[in-house]
């Protein structure tokens, strides 16, 4: 038999896309392929793409300004046309009085004054025309500048049409996401720089999108505070959340504790205030579908994360399902991880990680592995990992930039392959890099 031959290659750096792709033979002669996936949405951060988006916004602003001027001009022109008979009458009278002053009577003078009063609004119309001429001159300069910028961008990009480039970017992103979905689960190897989406709310809180795969739901939810909160804001899209617009309010029948909430398959799962009861609230029906006690779990700041805030029970979701992270008195305050049935909130299986929860800043699940940070303050890093598939742990050293120095919520979203964090009144995203090992059977 011929030996298995495996190829190995090095691809461009992370700023250009895929970092590493390599294959090697295992002891049985099978190929083992290793892929390190890149951060997502790199194309959207390209300077030329940002410049073109800015250009598009400026063109829209100019277009809207011209529409306003056009509407106002049409309205004022109609007013001038309606006033034309009155103008002709006044003009005729004035000519008559100039030609024959003796015809001017007290009654005629009074009538002339009345007609002149009716024509007085024309002065403001004429003044508006003067201002609109200045506006049009300004818009002309803006259009000229935009034309110069567009020409420069076209020269930089080359012969490709921008729409064609956008389609190619979308196609490549679709292929990338498809490939990443095929890769499935992997181990966390790096966390990107922070991406600040919005600054809103108090120092503590949580925000999220639906974590279930697959889901086309684009809504974003925000829950400000950690103590006795009941108000959940639901935004239609991430864009609306960024702008703080197009939202509806849900008033929960039971207040929450902490910030360890998660949205999974259209429902909000959260910890009921001053209890170890888990609540499932369904957004569409605006009703509580389920309540169940998490047996033995500490609550009310018995075993919180290092920052406190009633963070005893942390609910989260990853590629494999719904999880609860908590502690109990029998296991001496070490972090417990339990897999939950989302339909009944029954505990399916539990693991004692051996890591003290009060020493953890935050925690999140990726592909069945619990990752724990060593602090919620500046200088924090992912310090510990517990693998539920093998019931083993390891200490890690994965740094990330804690930009606003106080993280009170950190959760992974498997749909976006990103970490959602609430950092001192800022809603921040981090992309993650996962290490995938794909084994072939042949």
TrEMBL record:
Pfam families: Noelin-1 (PF12308), OLF (PF02191). SMART domains: OLF (SM00284). GO terms for biological process: signal transduction. The keyword Disulfide bond applies. It comes from the Eukaryota. PROSITE patterns: OLF. It is found in: Secreted; Synapse. Disulfide bonds join 185-367. InterPro entries: Noelin_dom, Olfac-like_dom, Olfactomedin-like_domain. Keywords: Coiled coil, Disulfide bond, Glycoprotein, Secreted, Signal, Synapse. GO terms for cellular component: extracellular space; synapse. Residues 184-436 form the Olfactomedin-like domain. This is Olfactomedin 2. It comes from Seriola lalandi dorsalis. The lineage of its organism: Eukaryota, Metazoa, Chordata, Craniata, Vertebrata.
């Amino acid at each position: 038999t011929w030996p298995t031959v495996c190829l190995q290659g090095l691809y461009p750096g992370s700023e250009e896309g895929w970092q590493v792709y390599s294959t090697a033979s295992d002891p049985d002669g099978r190929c083992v392929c290793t892929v390190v996936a890149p951060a997502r949405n790199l194309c959207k951060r390209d300077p030329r793409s940002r410049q073109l988006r800015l250009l598009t916004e400026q063109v829209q602003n100019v277009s809207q300004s011209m529409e306003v001027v056009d509407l106002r001009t049409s309205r004022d022109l109609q007013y001038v046309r309606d006033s034309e008979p009155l103008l002709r009458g006044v003009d005729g009278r004035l000519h008559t009085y100039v030609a024959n002053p003796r015809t001017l009577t007290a009654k005629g003078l009074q009538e002339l004054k009345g007609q002149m009063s009716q024509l007085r609004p024309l002065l403001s119309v004429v003044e508006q025309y003067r201002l609109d001429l200045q506006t049009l001159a300004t818009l002309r300069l803006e259009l000229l500048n935009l034309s110069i910028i567009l020409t420069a961008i076209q020269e930089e990009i080359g012969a490709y049409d921008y729409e064609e480039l956008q389609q190619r970017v979308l196609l490549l992103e679709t292929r990338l996401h498809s490939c990443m979905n095929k890769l499935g689960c992997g181990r966390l190897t790096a966390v990107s720089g922070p991406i600040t989406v919005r600054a809103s709310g108090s120092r503590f809180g949580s925000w999220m999108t639906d974590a279930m795969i697959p889901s086309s739901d684009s809504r974003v939810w925000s829950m400000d505070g950690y103590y006795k909160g009941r108000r959940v804001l639901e935004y239609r899209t991430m864009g609306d959340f960024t702008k703080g617009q197009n939202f509806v309010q849900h008033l929960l029948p039971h207040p929450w504790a902490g910030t360890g909430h998660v949205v999974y398959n259209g429902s909000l799962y959260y910890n009921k205030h001053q209890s170890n009861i888990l609540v499932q609230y369904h957004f569409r029906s605006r009703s509580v579908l389920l309540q169940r006690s998490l047996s033995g779990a500490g609550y009310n700041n018995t075993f919180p994360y290092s920052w406190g805030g009633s963070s005893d029970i942390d609910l989260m979701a990853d590629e494999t399902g719904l999880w609860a992270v908590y502690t109990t008195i029998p296991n001496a305050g070490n972090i417990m991880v339990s897999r939950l049935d989302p339909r009944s909130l029954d505990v399916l299986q539990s693991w004692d990680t051996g890591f003290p929860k009060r020493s953890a800043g935050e925690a999140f699940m990726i592909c069945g592995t619990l990752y724990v940070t060593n602090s919620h303050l500046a200088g924090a890093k992912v310090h510990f990992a517990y693998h539920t598939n093998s019931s083993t742990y390891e200490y890690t050293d994965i740094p990330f930039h804690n930009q606003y120095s106080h993280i009170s919520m950190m959760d992974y979203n498997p749909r976006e392959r990103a970490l959602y964090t609430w950092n001192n009144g800022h809603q921040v995203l981090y992309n993650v890099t996962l290490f995938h090992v794909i084994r072939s059977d042949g």
